[in-house]
Design brief:
By secondary structure, the chain is of the alpha+beta class. The protein folds into three domains: about 80 residues, Uridine Diphospho-n-acetylenolpyruvylglucosamine Reductase, domain 2, CATH 3.30.43.10; about 130 residues, Uridine Diphospho-n-acetylenolpyruvylglucosamine Reductase, domain 3 (2-Layer Sandwich); about 70 residues, UDP-N-acetylenolpyruvoylglucosamine reductase, C-terminal domain (Uridine Diphospho-n-acetylenolpyruvylglucosamine Reductase, domain 1), CATH 3.90.78. Helices cover about 20% and strands about 25% of the residues. Strands 1-2-3-4-7-5 form a six-stranded mixed β-sheet. A hairpin with a 2-residue loop joins strand 10 and strand 11. About 45% of the residues are buried. The structure holds flavin-adenine dinucleotide. The site of flavin-adenine dinucleotide (FAD) has 31 residues, from strand 5, helix 3, strand 10 and strand 14.
């Protein structure tokens, strides 16, 4: 805990308020991941650029929706930054100077905004651009950082400006400034996607909904349990799930982690699974599938921010 921080909060919970007024709490990261796994770390609930600047004075990691992470049972030693307050709010008002009858450029959308709710809201407004990302349980910042998407569309289909914060300061870039591509933004690892402005095509709620339904249908057959999504990338265009299935591993259970019977490329938490259980299953898959498989998830700790 930051030496300057003042302790406060509920019994048994180590909470403090930092110099910039940021709430800092030692918490199990399992609370913030879709897999429901991960040990403790010092979580900084950053609500402003001043708070980000202070939090970045020491080694840090950025936590989004936790939907692509397997975090160790021992947690991580770095500060974990969670975008909150105004950095998790959205202003979808069309910018009168940049918008046209055919295209809306929005106000700022915080990196901490949950993507599924945003996609639903845009559909209701009849604004098209991000509907291909329907069903991705990310936050906006994490989805931009990875250029999350499906074959029906990706985050960079709807971006106008991206605000990046680093220990050196804040700058704004456009997609043209970045070497983005398939599931990558080209944004370096220690850069926080703090806010974005969206550029969307004016459509109708029904037309956007129809596209969303199409993208959503592709998710049928995916397990509904706690999971960090697909475990492995498809090697050379071959389905990783099919290879795992052919190795006879569907339904394999270690501890409370299971290779989903519905889809072999998903590992699910049956309740109380540990990161060790998940790692043991990943090792089993790698040992039994003859083709080298590259992991889709990010493992923490792995790479720490400087
Ligand atoms: C059920 C399920 C379905 C999924 N389907 C898809 C899919 O169809 N397509 C797809 O692409 N992905 C999919 N995923 C994977 C995942 O949702 C994406 O990889 C997503 O981009 C992760 O975003 P996040 O906010 O959860 O990031 P996290 O998992 O929290 O973090 C992932 C990485 O992003 C970084 N990061 C997070 N927030 C920020 C930020 N504000 N600024 C900078 N870096 C940040 C983290 O430091 C970390 O390196 C799925 C996952 C699940 C659980």
């Amino acid at each position: 805990m930051d030496p300057g921080a003042r302790p406060r909060g509920r019994r048994g919970v180590t909470a403090a308020v930092s110099r910039s007024g940021t709430r800092v709490e030692r918490l199990p990261l399992s609370r913030f991941t879709t897999l429901g796994v991960g040990g403790e770390a010092e979580v900084w609930f950053v609500t402003s650029h001043d708070a980000l600047a202070e939090a970045m004075e020491r080694p840090y990691r950025i936590l989004g929706g936790g939907s692509n992470l397997v975090i160790a049972d021992a947690g991580v030693p770095e500060r974990v930054l969670r975008l909150s307050g105004p950095l998790a709010e959205r202003d979808l008002t069309p910018d009168p100077l940049l918008s046209t009858p055919a295209r809306v450029v929005t106000g700022w959308v915080g990196g901490g905004v949950p993507l599924p709710g945003l996609v639903r809201q845009l559909q209701k407004l009849g604004l098209s651009g991000l509907e291909g990302t329907v069903g991705i349980p990310a936050q906006v910042g994490g989805a931009v950082w990875m250029n999350a998407g499906t074959r029906y569309g990706e985050m960079f289909d709807g971006l106008h400006t991206i605000e990046l914060v680093t220990p050196e300061g804040t700058r704004q870039v456009t997609p043209d400034d970045l070497p983005w591509g398939y599931r990558q933004s080209g944004i370096p690892r220690n850069h926080v996607v703090s806010r974005v402005r969206l550029a969307l095509t004016v459509s109708t709620p029904d037309a956007v909904l129809a596209k969303m339904d199409f993208a959503d249908q592709a998710r049928r057959g995916q397990p509904k349990m706690k999971t960090p999504g697909c475990a492995f990338k498809n090697p050379g265009g071959v389905s990783a799930g099919q290879l795992i299935d052919e190795a006879g591993l569907k339904g394999t259970r270690i501890g409370n982690a299971l290779i989903a019977p519905e889809h072999a490329n998903f590992i699910v938490n049956l309740g109380g699974a540990t990161a060790a259980d998940v790692h043991a299953l990943l090792d089993t898959v790698r040992a039994r599938v003859k083709v080298p498989l590259e992991l889709e998830y990010e493992l923490w700790p792995g790479q720490a921010e400087p």
